[in-house]
Design brief:
Layout lengths: L4 H22 L6 E9 L4 E10 L2 E4 L2 E5 L2 E5 L2 E2 L10 H7 L5 H35 L5 H38 L3 E5 L2 H34 L1
Antiparallel strand pairs: 1-2, 1-7, 2-3, 2-4, 3-6, 4-5
Subcellular location: Membrane
Membrane topology: Multi-pass membrane protein
Pfam family, one: SUR7
Length: about 220
């Protein structure tokens, strides 16, 4: 059973990183974080209320409710186009008071956009090599060595991705609290999904190496 455990761990880690890599707006429920703004004044019935959620390839914002002296205007929510890198709609920036956060959000998410898919790609390679070794381990060391190398790279990249995702959330939350008390940041799922993938990759890599070298030792004993 332990012989196939690394394959299961690599597969789950791959799925997690794949979901993180696509995230919002491709998958509507997976996001880095959500910024919510609630600036309403009961005295004059004036203010704005709405939220925007960020993913790897863009953002989605909810209906934005704007009240001016009791008159309500609703801006329908929608998502940005799916593409590498994105530019904020100026209307969204003005409505949700995001002027001072544009550069920080863009920079952090651009870095995450690069790291997460690369980690996902190396995890997929590791999964392929692990499957190859599981069914062809008698045919040489190639799948074991390649799997160990790609697994190490994938685990390191997943660790970097987790740190990047966590830093993005922490720094953005800190900046939000400084800029406006009415802005609130709530964390999404991507950081914890990346953490889970990182743990699975490190454990899977150790098990893969243990299983691999045991298999090679057994093979040598049978040969001699």
């Amino acid at each position: 059973m332990i012989h196939y455990a690394p394959i299961g761990m690599f597969f789950v880690a791959f799925l997690l990183l794949l979901l993180v890599s696509v995230s919002l707006p491709v998958t509507k429920t997976i996001k880095y974080f959500t910024l919510s703004l609630d600036m309403t004044s009961g005295t004059f019935a004036t203010g704005v209320k709405g939220s925007v959620s960020f993913g790897n390839y863009g953002y989605c914002y909810s209906d934005i409710i704007v009240k001016v002296v009791g008159i309500t205007n609703t801006v329908p929510g929608e998502c940005s186009k799916v593409k590498l890198g994105f530019k904020f709609d100026q209307r969204l920036v003005d409505l949700l008071r995001l002027q001072d956060l544009q550069d920080a959000i863009n920079g952090g998410l651009t870095f995450a956009l690069v790291v997460n898919p690369i980690a996902c790609g190396f995890t997929f390679l590791t999964l392929i090599f692990a499957i190859w070794f599981a069914f062809r381990h008698k045919h040489g060391l190639a799948p074991l060595i390649l799997g160990a190398i790609s697994g190490l790279i994938a685990a390191i990249l997943a660790t970097i991705a987790f740190v990047v995702n966590y830093v993005i959330m922490s720094v953005t939350k800190k900046n939000v609290e400084k800029i406006n008390d009415s802005l609130h940041l709530s964390y999404g799922q991507t950081t914890w999904m990346t953490l889970a993938a990182m743990i699975l990759l490190w454990i899977g890599l150790v098990l893969f190496c243990i299983v691999g070298f045991r298999a090679r030792r057994t093979r040598r004993k049978e040969t001699y």
